[in-house]
Amino acid sequence: MKNLFLALTLLATTQWIQGQVGINTVSPTAELDIAASTTNLPALELEPQSVPTGAATGQMAVIGDQLYMYDASRGKWLTIAATPLVFSRGGDIGSQSLRMAGNLTTANSGILLPFDGTIIAITSNSNTVSGTATNNLAAPFNVRIRQGNTTIVGGNINFNLLGGTYNDNTANIDFSAGNHIHVRAQNTGTDTISNPTVTIWVKWRAN
């Protein structure tokens, strides 16, 4: 009888583990469903921790005061949300800096990055030129991660448009707090590209 009781207990426990789990609900609609309560308490709390050892995409941790997810393809903990940094310039552009704020065009200044992070994507879009200038829909661009007047090691990225657009969503380029980013069109001669926009997508990185 004792063995039968243990077997039934094990069977029931196994079925419970394999089934859906509900907290504050008897009808869970997910593998784990935490329903709101009337106690005015948060539904979930993750204790802040130092950087854990990640093993698979989808693992989550609060590191410091940010929520991070482990990105196994890049091998690092990155914030959930991506932040777009948009550089653009109106008109027909030759070999000129793109602008992020105001009329700033110097490579030695730009948006100061407040935290360590990783560029996870670079996208660009443009349209055809007007007038008689040659339209270069394969226009080259240069993205540089700078510390003062020096480009950091691994922080010089070149790419070419294809039909006026570019989309790299597999980028994995680290930067440090205190670096800044500069973007430049690199057309030469009479080639121009019109109204280019380059967007640098970043996530903040836990070290």
Question: What are the defining features of this structure?
Answer:
2 domains; elongated; Jelly Rolls; 10-stranded mixed beta sheet; 8% helix; 1 helix; 3-stranded antiparallel beta sheet; mainly beta; 207 residues
Q: What is the C-alpha radius of gyration, as a whole number of Å? A: 25 Å
Order of helices and strands: HEEEEEEEEEEEEEEE
Shape: elongated
CATH class of the largest domain: Mainly Beta
Annotation field: number of helices: 1
- Domain count: the total is 2
- Work out the helicity level: under 10%
Note the main sheet: 10 strands, mixed
Decide which structural class fits the backbone. mainly beta
The CATH topology of the largest domain comes to Jelly Rolls
Strand content: 35-45%
The assigned CATH architecture of the largest domain is Sandwich
Average the pLDDT over all residues and give the rounded result. Answer: 85
Task: Report the count of strand segments.
Answer: 15
Concise description?
The protein is mainly β.
